[in-house]
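Work Package 3 (structural annotation) set out to generate three-dimensional models for the target panel prioritized at the project kickoff. During this period the team completed the workflow that converts sequence records into discrete structure tokens, so that structures can be stored uniformly alongside our sequence database. As a representative example, we reproduce one entry of 85 residues exactly as it appears in the project archive.
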Amino acid sequence: HPTEKALIVNYSIEATVLDEYQNTMIGDKKDAQKIIRLKSLGPATDIRALAKEVINRCKLIHPTKLVEVEQLLFYLQNRRDTNLP
């Protein structure tokens, strides 16, 4: 997130109605977004533990993305506060 300590997860939802022969009758796709606010993220936060918690709570993020989540959390943890005047 550009100003908050939060991760933004972008994902797509696809629904398809099939006929009795498994042919597509109707299909629809929708893009969506989930914001995961990280209220507990601070200078002393255990990044690895928080990344695991994020992945366990948000089923939209596959466990193979653990390293990427850790990197994003590390960036957010060390980013300068952009809300200060």
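The radius of gyration is 18 Å.
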